[in-house]
Design brief:
Layout: H1 2-12, H2 23-32, E1 41-48, E2 60-64, E3 75-78, H3 82-90, E4 94-96, H4 98-107, E5 114-117, H5 122-125, H6 129-132, H7 150-159, E6 161-165, E7 171-178, H8 182-199, E8 210-217, E9 223-225, H9 230-235
Helix pairs in contact: 2-8, 3-7
Length: 236
């Protein structure tokens, strides 16, 4: 732990905590301060000027990152009839109906990263709320995971779809790729995320919407981003 602490402090010393870096500079700093010996995830923490306690300000959505997340995703589809074949052909890792619900309930099976369900199966899937809910795995129409178009849902997830929602502190956390992506792909993924965040601005949100943004690797220090250029980045 001491060694890890030294590496982290050495990385942190390279970042001016009082400065807000341009997007290009921030991404470069994030890559420079990466020190772990694995391909770390690069993540964004976006503080929004919303009150998550109000239903009309609970920012939630999804974005398909142009270069994906760099992480393979196992998808479970709960459906029936012709939708079973559709899901299989789209590349779902696991497909089934009531037997899948029972497997999760009775065996505690959770060997998947995302769950897609057709609306006619939500009565059954609802039984899994206590298991899937706390893990962020519960299908939801707002993120496109409750749908009859299971092929599109599976393909989007496999292509790098990221679901996000503002937490109780008003912060959205989302991955934008991996260190190995390099600056250009990370910038394009970040732009896609910010475009979606701005598009989801609640009409009732007053004052500054995007208050602050920080980028970091899994193990690295946060690098603050100059928010003044983010709207132009998102619109590019």
């Amino acid at each position: 732990m001491a060694r890890r602490g030294k590496r982290y402090l050495a990385a942190k010393a390279k970042v001016d905590s009082t400065k807000r870096y341009s997007v290009d500079e921030a991404i470069q700093k994030v890559l420079e301060t990466h020190w772990a010996n694995f391909d770390e995830s690069v993540d964004a923490a976006i503080v929004l000027g919303v009150d998550p306690r109000k239903a009309d300000q609970n920012v939630r959505g999804s974005v398909v990152l142009p270069h994906g997340t760099g992480k393979p995703v196992k998808v479970l589809v709960i459906a029936k009839g012709e939708k079973i074949k559709e899901a299989e052909e789209a590349g779902a890792d696991y497909v089934g109906g009531e037997e899948m619900v029972e497997k999760i309930q009775k065996e505690g099976w959770l060997d998947f990263d995302k769950v897609v369900a057709t609306p006619d199966m939500m009565g059954l899937v609802g039984r899994l709320g206590r298991i899937l809910g706390p893990r962020g795995l519960m299908p939801n129409a707002k993120t496109g995971t409750v749908t009859f178009d299971v092929a599109k849902a599976v393909k989007d997830i496999k292509a790098g779809k990221v679901d996000f929602r503002v937490d109780k502190a008003g912060v959205v956390h989302a991955p934008i790729g991996r260190v190995s992506f390099g600056p250009q792909k990370l910038k394009e993924n970040f732009a896609a995320l910010m475009e979606t965040i701005y598009r989801l601005k609640p009409a009732s949100s007053k004052g500054t919407y995007v208050k602050s943004v920080a980028l970091s690797t899994t193990m690295g220090p946060g690098v603050k981003v100059d928010t003044s250029e983010l709207k132009n980045l998102a619109a590019a």
